[in-house]
Amino acid sequence: MKLFCFILSLFICFGSQAAQSQTLQQTETDATLHAVWFVDNNIGWAVGERGTILQTQNSGETWTLQQPRTRDHLYSIHFFDEFTGWIAGQDNLILYTNNGGNTWSEQRPSPVSGQDLTTLHFFDWKRGLAAGGPGGGVFFTENTGTTWSRRASFGNTVSVQTITFQRDQQGWAAYNNTIHLTDDRGRNWSEATYFTDEEDYRVKNLHFLNSTKGWAIGAVGSDGMVLQTVDGGNEWRVRANLPGQIPLAIHFYSENLGQIIAANGSQLITRDGGISWETKIPGTSRSIHDAYFTADGTSWAAGEGGTILKYEPPEFDDLEVTSEIYPMVEIADEDEAVDLLNRALRYAEGAEKRDNIASRKPHYVRLRGAVDNVRQYYRDREIPGYISERVNLLITHYWALEHNAGAEIFNRTAEILPDSLHLMQKARDHFGNATVIQPDSAVSYLSLATAHDNLDDLTGAIRAMETGIERLEPPEIKHYDYLFTLYERKGRSSDALQIAEKASDRYPDSPIFLQYLTDLHIEAGETDKALEYLDRLIDLDPDDPDYRFVRGSQTFLIGHEYLSRALERYEVVWRLTERQQRPLPANEMRELEAETRRVTREAERLEGEANLYTTEAIRDLKRVTDLRPDDDSAFGYLGMIHYNRAAILEEIRLLTPDFDEAQAIEEKINRELLQAKDQYEKATSLNPANRDYWETLYQIYLFLGMYSDAERISNRF
Q1: Whole-angstrom distance, CA of residue 431 vs CA of residue 425
Q2: Per-residue three-class SS string for 365-395
Q3: How confident is the model at residue 13 (pLDDT cuts 50, 70, 90)?
Q4: What pLDDT, on the 0 to 100 scale, is given for residue 18?
Q5: For every residue of 644-693, which 3-state class applies, written as one string?
Q6: Distance of alpha carbon 381 from alpha carbon 187, whole angstroms
Q7: What does the longest C-alpha to C-alpha distance in the chain come to?
Q8: Do residues 536 and 514 lie in contact, with contact meaning Cβ atoms separated by under 8 Å?
Q9: Rounded to whole angstroms, how far apart are CA atoms 673 and 665?
Q10: Residues pairing with 307 in the sheet
Q11: Which of 67, 465, 549, 651 is the least buried, fewest Cβ under 10 Å from its Cβ?
């Protein structure tokens, strides 16, 4: 039990947990699907042979077959948002939509027939790359694909398998057993210094966690291989071999946690950066051709016979799934700025159409991202005007819509309702949306923290509370207090210590964080540090008996430790003295006498330290009895101090060879026992039901030779 305990009243807590699984989606086609892409966790696409295009608006519950008026096979897909997307396919075909797939227009980047486009990457809603082969061409557009220009060619016999970019300019392209790098959006490419000696190795997919660390997956025959780079792709080394598994797609959530979807639909996960892989979900009887990983941790795979598989997020400990991020786009002129602002309005409208509160979040991510890009454009050009006012009104409107809805639910759950769990989940989703729309809103993060807490999600509560405190200037005592409590409940003692120190520095006159710091240092066995905070507490309130009691108990423990160490030294002195009684050479006797004097001084020093701390303990505890004269525990503690001290002094007396010195120690023992007797008699009078008090008092009476008194109380314990 803590010495200081403060209870924070919150809503009722609930808990839930999802199981990992793989679900086969129902589609309206038997065509082989070559690519899958999700705009967010709800809106997705899959494309394949004979011009097949499938779309879902509800996270795969239903898939709708679209008719793009082509019979060409389709190999790759990339959507910038729910409205704007491209599909690449057979014979240099690119399909483009700006209305969410309601209509499609055809584009042909190259006049050369017989070449297929197998990979796409777009930086924003206008600018992107397409590549394929044979011919190894990389094509670029900056007007949504109306016109395309060749940026590079990797060779007449080359078919580019995949292109990916990390930070807009920095990208990688792979084909066969080769990887190329670019740092200027694909204008110039350089080949990796070393990739692999396996000539038959075929790269399937690339993933970069940041600008330096990335992974490549591929296969040699029927066996897979995982390679890794730590220098941005210049040099690679084999990280793992996957016998009998052909990996198709790879994704890492951190430097250690990642997953692979294989050609048979199996899901493999790693917890050590790709060194070892564990099959979490076995494969299917149908071959898989592509996989995609959404921002919420869900995975999707598509393949033979219209197969689409959905995988729940991997069960990694303390996995923090990243949120969808809207890219910083290149706005060329004011027309494009207005175009992007209109997109923001459409994103907002898309959110409003969603009855499912959580499914609005991706729309709000795009709303906020588009708005930030427009703001940056006008800020860079120092152009004031009504646009910024309109933007502010737009953000404020939708933030208030979501935050107030969450607050209304909080008010409704003030009383326990049958659907409290469901309501609290809705409140959490509303506040989560509000933080996306207005990331600077501290109040939304604080409310989100409470919602997570009431759903037994301490990790989410801590993350939201940390962010909320960062946005407060300054945070109030109650905010620091709540975060400290969350850290404690999660078992994050070091974080609790840091936040208590920070809060104490900001609010030096507030006792609550000094109390927390005292507790933490006592738990860690750092008594001297705990005493520093106790002294600060006593300075704030000299007449608080609790502070005095805690300080007295801690100084007694320190004193007792010093006295025990002194006893150990006295035992050494006794053994050294005993050896001096034997006949020894003169030089050895001198050394023995010198050692005896040294150990004696050490024992006396430790005993002196013990006396100082014990004196402080007695002073503080007597102050408690003055402030709270009916506190039996304070009298009992004082009795214990004197009794324990008498016991150790008795040990020291027995080890003392000098008669006069032993006699002096015995007098000290009697004085300590008399003090202990007085304190325990007072404690028993205040709390006669405490059997421990009576038993110790009985022993004291016996030591003092007060046998009739001992007999009188012998039946009280």
Answers
A1: 10
A2: HHHHHHHHHHHHHHHHCCCCCHHHHHHHHHH
A3: very low
A4: 37
A5: HHHHHHHHHHHCCCCHHHHHHHHHHHHHHHHHHHHHHHHHHHHCCCCHHH
A6: 27
A7: 117
A8: yes
A9: 12
A10: none
A11: 67
Tokens 């689409």 correspond to: 308
What pLDDT, in 10s, does the model give residues 334-354? 889 889 999 999 999 999 999
Q: What amino acid is encoded at 232 in this protein?
A: G
- DSSP at 668: H
Task: Give this prediction's pTM.
Answer: 0.76
Handedness of CA 696, 699, 705, 708 (dihedral sign): positive
Q: d(Cα 250, Cα 268) in Å, to the nearest integer?
A: 9
Q: How many CB atoms lie within 10 A of CB 706?
A: 16
- Tell me: cis bond preceding 474? Omega within 30 of 0 counts: yes
Distance CA 432, CA 454 (A): 14
The SS3 assignment for 247 reads strand
DSSP states of 117-178 as a string?
EEEEEESSSS-EEEEEESEEEEEEESSTTSS-EEEEEEETT----EEEESSSS-EEEEETTE
DSSP, collapsed to helix, strand or coil, labels residue 630 as: coil
Average pLDDT of span 422-450: 95
Would the CA dihedral through 46, 52, 55, 60 be positive or negative?
negative
- Euclidean distance between CA atoms 238 and 234, whole angstroms: 14
Residue 684: both structure tokens together: 């028993």
Give the model confidence (pLDDT) of 186-228 as tens digits: 999 999 988 888 888 999 999 999 999 999 999 999 999 999 9
For residue 597, CA distances in Å to 322, 564, 571, 651 come to 68, 19, 13, 20
Q: Which of 543, 544, 523, 519 is nearest to 533 (CA)?
A: 519
Task: Give the C-alpha separation, 567 to 610, whole Å.
Answer: 11
pLDDT attached to residue 655? 81
Q: How far apart are CA 31 and CA 305, in angstroms?
A: 5
509: left (phi > 0), else alpha (psi -120 to 50), else beta? alpha
Strand 44-48, strand 223-229: pairing: unpaired
Is 667 strand, coil or helix?
A: helix
Q: Hey, is 205 helix, strand or coil?
A: strand
Q: How far apart are CA 57 and CA 68, in angstroms?
A: 18
385: left (phi over 0), alpha (psi -120 to 50) or beta: left
Torsion angle in degrees (nearest 10) through CA of 498, 504, 507, 510: 130
Provide the 8-state DSSP code for 235: B
Tokens 């002194």, residue?
566
Phi, psi torsion values for 114, nearest 5 degrees: 85, 0
- Cβ atoms of residues 671 and 700 within 8 Å: no
According to the model, what pLDDT value does residue 387 have? 65
Beta bridge partners of 22: 311
Residue 672 CB contacts under 8 Å (≥ 6 apart), including other chains: 642, 643, 645, 646, 649
User: Could you give the CA distance from residue 520 to residue 47 in angstroms, rounded to a whole number?
Assistant: 58
What type of residue is 138?
Answer: V
Would you tell me the crossing angle of helices 511-523 and 527-540 to the nearest 10 degrees? 160
What value, to the nearest 5°, has the Cα angle with vertex 438 and ends 435 and 440? 90
Task: Name the CA radius of gyration of the chain, rounded.
Answer: 37
The closest of 452, 341, 344, 440 to 399, measured between CA atoms, is 440
The pLDDT score that the predictor gives to residue 567 is 87
